Amino acid sequence: MNQDLHNDVAIVAIGRNEGERLKLCLRSAITQAQIVVYVDSGSTDGSVAFAHSLGCHVVQLDPARPFGPARARNEGFDAALAASPGVAFIQFLDGDCELIDGWLQQGIAALHARADVAIVCGNVREVHPEASVYNKLCDLEWQKAPGEILACAGRFIVRPAVFRAVSGFRPDVIAAEDDEFCIRVRRAGWKILQLDVEMARHDAAILRFGQWWLRARRAGLAYAQVAALHGRGQERTFVRDCRSIWLWGLALPVAALALAPFTHGLALLALPCAYAFLFGRIFAYGLQRGWSPRNARIYAWFTTLSKFPGLHGMLIYHKQRLTGARQRITEHYEYK
Questions:
Q1: Residue that finishes a domain, picked among 163, 186, 207
Q2: pTM for this one?
Q3: Among residues 34, 155, 214, 280, which one has the fewest Cβ atoms lying within 10 Å of its Cβ?
Q4: What is the CATH number of the domain that holds 156?
Q5: Distance (Å, rounded) from C-alpha 242 to C-alpha 222?
C-alpha cells in the first residue's frame, strides 16, 4: 500500500453511467486516500465492475427506492464510516470529476487551521470548455471567489461529526440538495470555506441543446423545492430566483398576449425590448466579474433563455407537490 495515501480522509464518489469520466475519477481518488467508496445509481456501463477492479468499496443503490445524489452521498458516507470508523474527514466527489493531486493536503490543512469551519471546497474547472457553449457555461458557473461562502456544490471535504449532527443530505431533495445541506450546516453554527486552490476537473459533457434544457429545467425544480423548504427564513433561499422565473418565464409573456388585442399588437412588440433589457443587465454583470465580452454574452443569453425551462421545472415541482406524483425529472443525472 502506498504510504503517501491519506489515512485521515475517505473519498466518496457517486455516479451513474459515467463511462471514461468515472475511470479518471476513481483513478485519481485511489492514489490519494486509503478508503475510496463508489456509490452507483443503477449503471449499465460496467462502472461497478471497474470500481471493484480498483479495490474500491462499492455500494449499489437498491432500485426499489428512487435514485438521487442526496441518497447516494448518504449511503456512501455510511459505507466510508463502516470501513474506517475513526476517519477524520470525508471528501465527496462526483463521478464526472477528477480530483487534483495535492488538494486533500490543502483542504485538510484549512480545516485544521479553522475549528469553526465544517466544509471546505476548492476551484473546479471544466476539462473541455471549448467542446460546446454549454460546457463553457458550466466553466463560468464553477468560478467562485475565495472566502466564507453560503453554499457549495456537492464536491467538498466535511467533518463527519457535523455531517451526522445535521443528519446528512435530505433524500427527498432531488436537486440543489447541496445548497439545502449547506443551509442546515450554517444554521448549526458552522462555516463553509472556499479556497483559491484547484480541487477538481469537471467534465460536463453537455454537447446538445436538449441536454442543457433538461439541466435548466432541473434547476427550476430545485429552486422551487428549496424555496418551499427554506424560503421563509432570514435568507429567503432561492425566493428571488423563483420570482425571476415567474416574472420572465410566465407573467410577462402572458401579460403581453393578454394586452395585445387592446394595444394593436404593441404589447407583443414590447416583449423583445423587455428581454433585451434583461440580457443587458446580465451581460453587464458578466463584465463586472471580469469575463470577456464573448463569455458575458454567452452567459447572458443562456441565463435569459433559462427562464423558460426553469418555469417548466417549477411547474413540475408544484404539480408534484399538489398531487403527490413523482415525476421522471427527479431521476439523478437525467440531463446527461
A1: 207
A2: 0.91
A3: 280
A4: 3.90.550.10
A5: 10
